[in-house]
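Review box. Two proteins, two foldings.
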Amino acid sequence: MSVAVICPGSFDPITLGHLDVFERASRRFDRVVIAVLGNPRKEGLFTVEERMELITTETAHLDNIEVDRFHGLLVDFCADRGIGIVCKGLRGGSDFEYEQQMAQMNQRIGDLETLFVSTSPAHGYLSSSLVKEVARAGGRFEGTVPPAVEAALRARFA
């Protein structure tokens, strides 16, 4: 029996913390779907297509990872693809409070189970928002994102 898991998020942009969670999930599950949220009410720094391309580039060495996009309810996306497990990385307590509510709602309306993965201590402080803020201000953000993302951020804020 093949077990699939989904790692959903906006990933605008992906950080080394995201990649850590993806790699760890890929070692534990047969199939990992990284689902990039497309929210028409929210304009991201990168388009959904650009984010998907960056994720695909940075996860190319993992043969059991797929990158897809979704909008609407995660439970519907998962039901259409036969996925019953969500994998989310947690940096700390504030992440848990928000993610626990989402997990409980997803379980109630879609029978989705959520597994929380504690972020590696080396990446526990990282967030896409923080990286974008530092990059936008011209600060040093080396070592927080993969090389392709670093290049994309530098080009975007040049």
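Next protein.
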Amino acid sequence: MTDYVAGGIAERSVPRGSGVGFWGMAMVVASEVTLFGTFIGTYYYLRFTNAHWPPPGTPEPRVVVPLILAGVLATTSLPLQLAARAARRAHLWAARFFLCWALTVQCGYLVYEIHDYVAQLHRSAPQDNAYSSIYYTLLGADHAHVALGILLVVWLLWKLLRGLTTYRLNAIRVVAFYWHAVNLLTLIVIGVLLSATL
């Protein structure tokens, strides 16, 4: 079954299969994990080869707000998983609702984080020292991945305006998988950056 519209019309289950989309996204996620692994390795290499970390005069990262925001962002894995489940059961409106819920929280997170990132750039610059360089690289790369995840959710919502198909069901599952990976990477990045306060 390739093309099938859901909504109030049909309540039967949509068939599912992993398809190439899932494996393609798994390759993307694996490459992103490698990229972030390199950044994190660089962070700890620099940390253990410098006597003072962060260097004197460099503002230390805040602890409470980043932890709360990372926790809030991590909760968006739930509505994305619920959207995939709703789509699998051919509940188009529920899938749209869960995607909108996730998108609202994700956008709020990213807007605040970009505002905070710019404010931090006024206090210190990436070229000031090794700490600032890797700090802004890690944080900026994470924000870029969150932004990409948001664009994927917007794309899904646009596609679902025309109904639910097997292709779109698989797309929801693939985007949910990507978003789970982004949330995990965000938690790891925040943990690494906050380790400087220990």
